Amino acid sequence: MQQVKDDRSLGELFAELSRETSTLVRKEVELAKTEVTQKATRMGRDVGMLAVGGAVVYAGLFFILAAVALGLMALGLPGWLAALLVGVVVAGIGYFLIQKGRDALKRVNLAPQQTVETLKEDAEWAKQQTH
Fold first, then answer.
1. Cα(28)–Cα(36) distance, rounded to whole angstroms?
2. In whole angstroms, what is the distance from residue 32 CA to residue 27 CA?
3. Cα 84 to the chain's mean position, in Å?
4. I need a labelling partner for 51 at 20 to 30 A (CA). Which of 18, 35, 90, 106 fits?
5. Model pTM?
6. What's the pLDDT tens digit per position in 62-79?
7. CA 18 – CA 65 distance, rounded (Å)
8. 112 three-state secondary structure
9. Which DSSP symbol is given to 111?
10. What 3-state class would DSSP assign to 3?
11. What is d(CA 96, CA 52) in angstroms, rounded to the nearest whole number?
């Protein structure tokens, strides 16, 4: 095995190390920004689902109230019961959407995992370079 001789001075080596470290830090910051942006976009969609679910539940409340009014006005069970059933079904759908959005939000991990991993790899690489 043949060793390669490097004729650079210690100052040149430290200057190169400084440049490479600076480039590495900039790339890691860029990666972290990209990763956080992607996660925030996904989280925005989940919040939207919560909002839509809330609106559907709100509409369901109106059907339930209409059922009560129809029950009082009609005095006939079939109309009142039909409106009440519609309101309960709409409220159930809204509840399902809210639960789905909430569960999706719980699964979101905002930590930039890829950046953390590459930082660990970079630290290990730097450690190996100094030995």
1. 12
2. 9
3. 37
4. 35
5. 0.42
6. 878 777 667 767 656 677
7. 70
8. coil
9. S
10. coil
11. 11
